[in-house]
Design goal:
Elements: E1 2-5, E2 11-15, H1 21-34, E3 40-45, H2 54-68, E4 72-76, H3 81-90, E5 97-100, H4 103-113, E6 119-123, H5 130-140
Helix pairs in contact: 1-2, 2-3, 4-5
Amino acid sequence: MEVTETSDSTTVVNDAYNANPESMTAALRALVAMGQGKQTWAVLGEMKELGDASILAHDEIGRLAVRLGVDRLIGVGEACRSMVLGAASEGYYGGEAHYCADGDQARKYLLEHAQAGDVILFKASRAAGLETLAEQVIADHGGPVYPTAGEAQ
């Protein structure tokens, strides 16, 4: 997980390098822990190589996001339709879960809805390309804040 604080106090967590049900679960739990008192976003892409279990696994991750208390979910890519539907079935009745066909749509949605100070997780298999989206969102929120020499640990 690469955690970046932006100049507008948005926290971007880039974990878009591999994904399976276990790592998605761990990332969602970490998001909730990091986001205490802040709006949390899970921008999730496809978990590859799940075969016949893909639809159910994506559905379960959407439901888990609701149960854990993630505020907003964006499912990116065709396989994530079932993730968004699972979240809606579990309790995201007011549009808290949103489907985007690709990273460009997800970026536009985030630009319209995410606010300074939010915590945004990006998690997917590498082939989904969400690490590029995470980098774009960091730039959209003013770029990273680097500690000064006196603050470095």
